[in-house]
């Protein structure tokens, strides 16, 4: 093979899938008993697809108030697809949100954790019920669903039918959140990215292409702490 890859085996998995992460790492999820030479053959047959993903250039749009620099007055942070200004407030004990982020001045130097914790709490509050609703619409059942901290994947569905959602999704518009959730739940019906898989996702998320474009344009911003 002409590219490096990591193989992750599972006794629960029945089919092989290939994932090219945004950090350009290639991960092969394979059934436990699948021989190495068979994995190599499958990767060889998918070489063109893998290289297309590896060489794909991401495009990101400049934001009027790019986040991720300092936690100061006038800075901005994303929430559900919109930018809101940050305002530091004296004698405030916790973050408040009212068309802007009101942040205690005492937490100004905790940039990497103060908003992250708030985002995670909001992700649990808003994303988890969304997943339950979409699962009912799709007619699927998952074992567990949780919010995770994963910089290079927006979501995942494990061989044990567990669904993971990246807390950073709470920064994205709800139509993008819906797309990612349905994408992962659709894997409970179709393990691979077949034509039938995409038909399921498109049927349940009419704004699928808009959501994918949004992630392509703004994915790098979501990866920032604020």
Automatic annotation (TrEMBL):
- Domain YgjP-like metallopeptidase as annotated: residue spans: 14-218
Q: What superkingdom does the record give?
A: Bacteria
Cross-referenced PANTHER family: UNCHARACTERIZED PROTEIN YGJP (PTHR30399), UTP PYROPHOSPHATASE (PTHR30399:SF1)
- This protein is called WLM domain protein
Q: Which organism is it from?
A: Anaerohalosphaera lusitana
